[in-house]
Specification:
- By secondary structure, the protein is of the alpha+beta class.
- The protein has one domain (about 40-185): minor pseudopilin epsh domain (minor pseudopilin epsh fold).
- Helices cover about 40% and strands about 30% of the residues.
- It has helices at about 1-25, 30-80, 115-120; strands spanning about 80-90, 95-100, 120-125, 130-135, 140, 145-150, 160-165, 170-175, 180-185.
- A hairpin with a 4-residue loop joins strand 7 (about 160-165) and strand 8.
- The radius of gyration is 33 Å and the shape is elongated.
- The protein starts with a helix and ends with a strand.
């Protein structure tokens, strides 16, 4: 009986191990269901993330242009010379350049280089952001060049720029013609 008891005990253990091993892991159908759920979620979340990046690029570009214009105004005041912000609406580019001083002519530094070449700053907008239009008084344009001049007394020629992205969002950068202050805000269409 002892041998028979041992044999039945071993058989019982083997059956239990078979049951346990079959309960571990996932079936192919379970794995496919999970993959389908992940795919559906990625299809909905992916475009939202891309849209957020586009909006972030627009906001960052607008802030950078506003900061560049503030820089031009502050340099014009501190150096007692005009500064020009030139916007190329076709190539989506901004160039900030020092203008003439009160002495009318190019100044040379110790190395003999002219100061104007060192004081030129250029900024290219990201691909998904564009200079949509420029407004100055009655003028409103969406192509060509637009410039804002900052004077040594802190004033400016004034103007307004509208930046937009692929998703239709817009930001406005406004420069007051009397005080030369730069304001940034989102725009409604």
């Amino acid at each position: 009986m002892n041998i028979q008891h041992r044999t039945s005990n071993v058989e019982h253990r083997m059956k239990n191990e078979d049951k346990r091993s079959s309960s571990y892991g996932f079936t192919l159908i379970e794995l496919l269901v999970v993959l389908v759920i992940i795919s559906v979620m990625a299809a909905f979340v992916g475009p939202r993330i891309a849209g957020s990046m586009s909006n972030m690029n627009l906001r960052t570009a607008s802030k950078k242009i506003a900061a560049s214009l503030r820089y031009a105004r502050s340099q014009a005041i501190s150096e007692s010379r005009t500064y020009v912000a030139l916007f190329d609406l076709d190539k989506n580019r901004v160039v900030i350049r020092a203008g003439q001083t009160a002495q009318k002519g190019k100044e040379k530094n110790e190395s003999g280089d002219d100061q104007d070449s060192r004081q030129t700053k250029q900024y290219e907008l990201p691909e998904d952001v564009r200079l949509d239009k420029a407004v100055w008084g009655e003028y409103e344009g969406d192509s060509g060049f637009f410039r804002i001049i900052f004077f040594s007394n802190g004033g400016s020629s004034g103007g307004e720029l509208v930046l937009s992205n692929d998703r239709g969002n817009r930001y406005e950068v406004k420069v007051d013609f009397i005080t030369g202050t730069v304001r940034l805000g989102s725009s409604e269409q």
